[in-house]
Each structure stands twice: as structure tokens, then as C-alpha cells.
NAD(P)-dependent dehydrogenase, short-chain alcohol dehydrogenase family
Amino acid sequence: MPFSPKRIAVFGASGAIGSAFVHECLDRYDTADMFCFARSPERIPVHERVESHAFLLEDTEGFNASADAIKAAGGLDLIFVATGQLHSDTSKPEKTIRSLTAAGMEETFHTNTILPSLIMKHFLPLLPKHKKAVFAAISARVGSISDNYLGGWYSYRASKAALNMLIRCAAIEMQRTHQSSVIIGMHPGTVDSSLSKPFQRGMPEGQLMQPEKSAAMLLDVISEVDQSQTGKCLAYDGTEIAP
């Protein structure tokens, strides 16, 4: 039976991938209700089936309140976390270990690791126990330890590797109570977005994807995943990424 979620939460819904994912869900699932979260909720796509929420990492009470309200209204079938940071005004990917700073590492881990883990804490319990439901968070191929042959990007690689471990732990725990749930990390490809913009020069032709294409392919994978894949990190084409 095809996966057709009726209640979908998207975190980071104002970003390139998050916004495209919202539009793709609205197009595919014409009766689904969307609960969209972003630091700048005014940038979330406007639609009659979209309910917009602001969220901040520091606002744990807001997380609780939002989760409680969604639970009371019927829970969730699909949770998609599209938050992520490679660089900022104050932090850049480290080419050498000499560039590491505590502040830069903390900023990257807050966005890439801590925030998704808190979303898991508050929103995984909203998934149904006895039918397929999916939690998917944007990870990255460079978070693979065994696939790292270039080095560099210390904080980003480490934060995504840590996220993959958290996803694995959550998948094991959820199997005890939610046997039909699937918890996965996802590599979206190199997407034309503010995250990749400084690193697009010199990329091979055809490697850079538009957000709409990436979102559609990610949703294709989510539609097909099963219990054998829970706890894993999958690429946009459905292939498994080595830990």
C-alpha cells in the first residue's frame, strides 16, 4: 500500500530544500495538513493547508507546546527536518585543524546535531504505533566516516556523523514501541542553495541540483523506505551511505 501521509511536519520550512519539500508534499498529497516550522515563519510557503510556527533552539517550552498541540489534534505521519549549517557570517568550514574554534564548532553542532535531536525528542512520540510513519532528517554524505578520504570540514563532518548516530539510536529505541516507524538520515545531493553557494565554482556540469528536484527525489525515497532501512542514512537516489 503506498505511503500517503495525512499530517506532515517540516522543520526548516523556509530554506531552499525545506520550502521545496513543502510544495512537493502539497502537490502529491492533496488532503495532507502541513505543520511548518522555521526561525523566520514569514518565509514559510503560504497555503490554506499550511500551519506556520516559529521555533528557536533555545525555546524548549515552545517545542513542548507545539508537540502537545499537534498530538492533541491527531499526531503526525511524516516528520522532515531540513535544517542545516555549513557556514555562517562568523563560521566557515575548516580546511585544517588549525582553524578549529570552540565557538565555530558549537554553532555548527547546535544547528546540525542538537536541534534535530531535540526535534526527535519532542516529536517522535507523535508518530503512530501501528502503521508506517517516517522521520527523515537532512544529513550529508560527508558525515560518513568510512567514506572520508579528503579530510577537512571538521565541524560539519563531525556534526553530521553525530546526527547519524543519534538517528541510529532513535531508530533502535522506536522499534520497541513503534514497530512500523522508519527513522532515517538523508543526503540531498549538492543543492543550489545558500549553504552550497560559496562552493559551487568548479563543480562538474550536472552535479548541482535544483531544490525542487532534490525534494521530489527525497520524497520518492521516503515513500518507498521500509523497516529494513530504519536507522540508516540514504542518498536522494535511495542508495545507502556507509557509516
About this structure: DSSP finds five helices and seven strands in the chain.
